[in-house]
Write a structure and sequence with these properties.
Rhomboid-like fold; about 55% helix; 2 domains; 8 strands; mainly alpha
Length: about 350
């Protein structure tokens, strides 16, 4: 989908070598797990009972001896496989195409932190959604039905593409799609989810995963991703506000709602950006005064005199001898110099004793 290679490209178009520690194939392993786990899910019900998100097992778990073990790990593991192998054949390669440039750009460590954060938030959001839906409808099938989908991780990766390479062209089968940049991927992905929900190809849980995945992907990149170049956490630039994930006509409404939510969290002391903080005082305002030694004072005084001399010379030669005011020397000045040098050479040397 996106053009990627073993080396990234700078703003000037020159390739930049990627360190070896940023070529670890974590995205290959996860993409393979999506395909393999989906096959196991379609074959074995025991695999689904262990790793799919089942709200009843997440709360009550299973009894092992005298202990009751809740299956809390299925909040994360349900993101790693699909309900049908055909979906996995689409999701797995898509995850690899989106995840490979992200892993090369961020490094394997930050890439895995990003996926772990997105997976946990996706699981918690879907679990809360299913519990409230069960209380509202009193449908036991929602409480005991296994859930699994990797669309939430794909939604988070589209936001990563938007942040890391917004102006890169989106490619399909080696061909660039005209007028389609990386910055438009999150909204296009959400639009496809809306159309699929209306047509019945996408379930309500999958649409919730798409929406939550886009938001928590933006949240992690906005506040928690570590950038080695600036040695700071989060992209707090204006170009990566939440409203920039949507088209221009929708941005005022999204920005208004986002500002209200941001002010509420800011009042609680959460999710503050660097622009919200008071800038630190300059070091030089609080620096201690240093006492100069006599030698240092003399050097400083002569340095100031030299600066004044150069300023006068550059400004027009005020206060300098006449022969130094102009770059060209006259013939009279040259004759005076010759006579002075000749008189010095003809004079007898002064005896030392």
């Amino acid at each position: 989908m996106l053009q990627s290679a073993d080396s990234s490209t700078s703003l000037s178009g020159l390739p930049i070598a990627i360190p070896l520690d940023r070529r670890r194939p974590c995205c290959i392993v996860i993409a393979s797990c999506i395909v393999v786990f989906s096959l196991l899910h379609s074959i074995s019900t025991n695999f689904s009972n262990l790793f799919a998100l089942i709200p009843s097992r997440t709360i009550y778990g299973a009894t092992v001896g005298t202990l009751t073990v809740p299956f809390v790990w299925n909040i994360v593991t349900f993101n790693l496989f699909e309900t049908h192998p055909l979906k996995a054949l689409i999701t797995g390669p898509a995850f690899f195409l989106l995840g490979r440039p992200m892993e090369e750009h961020w490094g394997s460590r930050e890439f895995m932190r990003f996926l772990a954060f997105s997976g946990v938030i996706n699981g918690v959001a879907v679990f809360i959604y299913k519990v409230f839906h069960w209380y509202a409808t009193l449908s036991e099938t929602d409480f005991f039905q296994p859930l699994c989908s990797a669309c939430g991780l794909l939604a988070a990766l589209t936001v990563g593409i938007k942040q890391a390479m917004p102006m890169d062209e989106v490619r399909a089968f080696g061909q660039a799609i005209p007028h389609l940049k990386g910055r438009t991927l999150p909204f296009i992905y959400l639009t496809i989810g809306c159309i699929g929900l209306l047509l019945g190809f996408v379930t309500g849980v999958e649409f919730v995963l798409c929406s939550v995945g886009i938001f928590n992907g933006w949240l992690f990149l906005r506040h928690y991703l570590y950038f080695e170049l600036t040695q700071a956490y989060g992209d707090h630039s204006v170009d990566f506000e939440l409203a920039t994930l949507f088209p221009q006509p929708l941005r005022p409404a999204v920005a208004f709602v986002a500002s209200l939510v941001h002010q509420a969290f800011q009042a609680c002391g959460l999710f503050k950006t660097r622009r919200d903080n008071v800038p630190p005082k300059s070091y030089y305002l609080n620096a201690p005064r240093v006492t100069l030694t006599p030698e240092q004072a003399t050097v400083d005084r002569w340095r100031n005199k030299g600066k004044q001399f150069l300023d006068k010379y550059i400004s027009g030669g005020q206060g300098l001898p006449a022969r130094y005011k102009y770059p060209q020397r006259t013939a009279a000045m040259a004759e005076e110099d010759l006579e002075r040098d000749g008189s010095k050479a003809a004079a007898p040397p002064t005896p030392l004793i």
